[in-house]
Amino acid sequence: MQHFANTPEDTKKNLPKRDVFPAMLKGFKCKCPNCGDGKLFNSYLKVRDTCDICSEELFHQRADDAPAYFTIAIVSKIVTSLYIWVEIAYQPDYWIHAVLWLPMILIMCLGLLPLTKGALIGLQWANYMHGFNPNHVEGDDIELPHEDILAKQASS
Ligand SMILES: [Zn+2]
Description:
mainly alpha
């Protein structure tokens, strides 16, 4: 059983509901999840601090390793399926597989990484995760041992 000092749901009360799918779609297009017009990235994967159009604060995002995880999952499914199809249909030499799939893996991963990162930032924004929640207090969403919860409650 998990014990949180202050659940994320507690801090989201009275905030307007944000639709998750449109926000993720805007992020997937590398656009601001709030307005959909401003650019999300300064460079390849560097997220802008704020949106140039609507001034939404974007630096709260914590995508971390999740974009790489989802990119690998998606690319591996596609490339593995194509690999098996080509092997069954044509039985090419192994060097042909290497020439086909290694560049394709590299290009697909590099191309998909900013899109999955943008979609995940859209997901975080729409769900008021981390600093996107104006009621968020740094450290309140950290899981605490039960004794620490009791100590915190006793002191307040
Ligand atoms: Zn914006």
